[in-house]
Design goal:
6 copies of one chain form a homohexamer.
Chain A: E1 2-4, H1 18-37, E2 41-51, E3 60-71, E4 74-84, E5 91-103, H2 122-147
Antiparallel strand pairs in A: 1-3, 2-5, 3-4, 4-5
Chain lengths: 150, 150, 150, 150, 150, 150
């Protein structure tokens, strides 16, 4: 997925708004989750999303998404965003995000089961182990923030 | 900050897109950061963002943002999103997010110092302690993901 | 209600379009009318709307709305718009508008009764008296323009 | 000027938002003022704007604008909006608005003089007399609302 | 149909995007087709569309459309686009396009017959003869590209 | 390039507007032309664009673009559009377009030379021969429409 950054998406610094990049990340992750489970999906959480460098007007945003964890009805998707300067060809990595989607049964509107993730390459397996650790930490943080109030 | 959910912001389920809520959260947090430091700011990271319930077309989204941590040139903002059904008046909490912004010097485009956060109420102090812990965990996660590759 | 003015909302002078401010005023007034009557509402008329100063790109638009008159199924809402320069904190009053909404029965699509307005403070009562006078003048103007043709 | 009402411009009733119609009226009036004075213009005030009937998704909005009063640097424009059902050809009058624009000197950003209005037909002269009366009432209302507070 | 070019429609050269002009052409042609047949229509093909000169931000785009050929359920529409500089009044021709629409039966979603085109003026007849020749060439090109693969 | 079709891009039939597909085709072709010549480019013409099947809300639009002809400063790009039903995975071919872009010198704003196209595979050579024939016909049609008037 590629997006040309048009002037109307810029902030006052001439680079794309953080919120617009978040929107692209959400759409790319939704499509990836959709293709894995072939069911309607809704965004459940973002665990991490970094903005390392701006993407300027006239540059191309390159967005790639890969599924990293499946757990019952939820899927974690890693999304990488990069920029390409169309006049020089120079590419930079600008964002990494981990977004969790939940599959929904179209009739009951309740969470629906998702096919398991088949891991083949070694790096996929290592990535999966880290995804499990992220999920453990996320659940721990949520339990904590619920007991502690805000 | 309040946003009426118009039909053109809906997904195919008739509720507002996750990416649109992210966009509102980013803008509300940017304004709060701006008002604290009176300098240009850019989105640096999202640590957590949860989507607990959908906001439907015709409902009102209520967005409130508060600064929870200041560290040199970065500010962490907590954003709470709720929905209000305009026909019944019923309100629900739908999202909590922690977004980090960095203040930018308008001339050099480099990070610029930010005034410290003055904490008065006891719950502000407790919130601040939890923000410091979140920041510690975030930096740990990043260090780890850098050494481990992806 | 607050709106950060993004570049894509600007006219060629670098300030927000009159039509965009009108759109914000309409939405803020609609929400206020909705909350009063808890029914669907439609815009019926604008009596006055002034644009005293421009709101520039990168400034914050602050919009507040209050109900000033109720008559059977119609509600007059006063909307005030101001700007805040996010780098200096300076605020200015930019627009005042009086917008009339009509409550609609969702089944018959015909005008539906609206609860009366309870006035407590003295300035609310004085504001209400002026609203009644505005309404009288408006109906007179309309009667006149109908008989006179255009 | 004609606008096809697309689904993304609809409110929850399936008809176009009041604020979107206001936006079209503002643009049509701005172009008419622009063509009269061949200078940059800004919206100064709306005196009256009525919404008599909804324009539904899939219908065509027909917008026509005519200059009705010139006074030093300000121009009053009357805008008429109608709807056309594309399947039946039926047309309805839906809105009338009076919008005042001010011509701006591009260098000083201050109000700039505007060429006088040449009235030829009898109905133009009658329309002009009514425009002068509207302007007198508007200035009276403003003087009053300034002395009375709000 | 007239469109004021707002900054958010510009590309990085300060002129309106080709894709935005295409969108306006499509809407103007759809309305013209709709008015001829009073049925729902869908875009079937574009035969030619030229972009001779840019339309800049702050200029007015003037779009006119005329039906040039009817064949069973399809209609060919010629769309002319020009620009007007609002400060000087200078007009230029910027695009010509030939777009083909098909009328659709709202119940069966299949092509539906369209009333014939009545030609009166001599230039209409000459235009019609050229339209028939364009259609012949188009069908020939399609047949060829189907047999030749790509 | 992939685009999820959101409800706000739909026409009244629940499928994406022809003009929106044209906009995506223009952007995809512009990026491809940009990457070939590493210069600013502007849309010069569309020769053919077909819409064979609708793309519905909630489906994914898949857009691929390839350069087929280079001549001095102009590049012809073929764009293919397909749809994917996210719930079933079924894919369909929906549009083919040939769009011509011209490279622009950023200083003089005049056409600038473009690197030649290197053809390797046999099907690329066959495609190139057909592109030359399309260009010959296009120039013939234009010469004709200029001499014949319209």
């Amino acid at each position: 997925m590629a997006q040309l950054v048009l002037p109307h998406e810029a902030n006052v610094h001439g680079s794309v708004l953080g919120g617009t990049v978040m929107h692209w990340i959400d759409l790319a992750a939704a499509v990836t989750a959709n293709r894995h489970c072939r069911r309607p999906v809704v965004t459940a959480a973002i665990d991490e999303m970094s903005f390392l460098a701006p993407i300027n007007v006239g540059q191309l945003a390159l967005i790639s998404a890969r599924i990293t964890l499946v757990d019952k009805s939820s899927m974690e998707i890693r999304v990488e965003v990069g920029s390409e300067d169309l006049l020089t060809g120079e590419q930079r990595h600008t964002s990494t995000a981990y977004v969790t989607f939940v599959a929904i049964d179209p009739v009951t509107s309740r969470p629906a089961p998702v096919p398991p993730l088949i891991l083949e390459a070694d790096d996929e397996k290592a990535g999966h182990a880290r995804a499990i650790e992220r999920r453990r930490q996320r659940l721990a943080r949520r339990a904590e923030s619920t007991t502690a109030g805000r």
